[in-house]
Amino acid sequence: MPHVSKKKIKKEVATELAGHFLAFLSTARTTRDASVLAHELLSQTERVMLAKRLMIVVLLVRGYRFLSIESALGVTPQTVVRVWRDLQRGRYRRIVTYARGKSPRGKAFLDEFIRAIHIGMPPRVGPGRWKWARR
């Protein structure tokens, strides 16, 4: 579980730290560089937590049901609802753009991400959507 210090810092300092952190992450030129940075900076739990949040946003935008998201990602209903509410409030705008396929590179990446977790989930619509249950 991520450790959060109980000592508070000034909002301005937190904002500046966050800016430097993001600027540092943007120095990664390749997926491999980004992976090394993520592994050095984030624990396994933190990486999984962020990946799950990303996928919840993408799956909600693409019309997956709450129950399907919960079972595929192993998250609680409260987590899905919290992310859904954030989406309703306009949070995750850039991720929504990628999820809707407005960026070909982002869409291809997210499609691959969905295929990785799609094991056991039936297609959402269309003929054959229940073939998985008859196997």
3D architecture notes:
- The protein has helices at 11-25, 31-41, 44-61, 66-73, 77-88, 93-99, 104-117, 131-134.
- The chain is mainly alpha-helical.
- The protein has two domains: 10-41, no CATH class; 44-121.
- α3 packs across α5 (77-88).
- The longest helix is centred in the middle third of the chain and has 18 residues, at 44-61.
- The protein is globular and about 55 Å long.
- The mean pLDDT is 81.
Instruction: State the helical fraction.
Output: 55-70%
- What would the principal axes of the Cα set say about the shape? globular
Indicate the low-confidence ranges by residue numbers. none
**Strand runs, count:** 0
Quick one: biggest sheet?
none
Q: What is the H-and-E element order?
A: HHHHHHHH
Task: Give the rounded overall mean pLDDT.
Answer: 81
Rg over C-alpha atoms, rounded to the nearest angstrom: 17 Å
Quaternary state reads single chain
* Structural class by sheet pairing and helices: mainly alpha
Count up the helices: 8
Name the beta content range: under 5%
Q: State the end-to-end CA separation.
A: 38 Å
Number of structural domains: 2
Summarize the structure.
With 135 residues, the protein is mainly α. 66% of the residues lie in helices and 0% in strands.
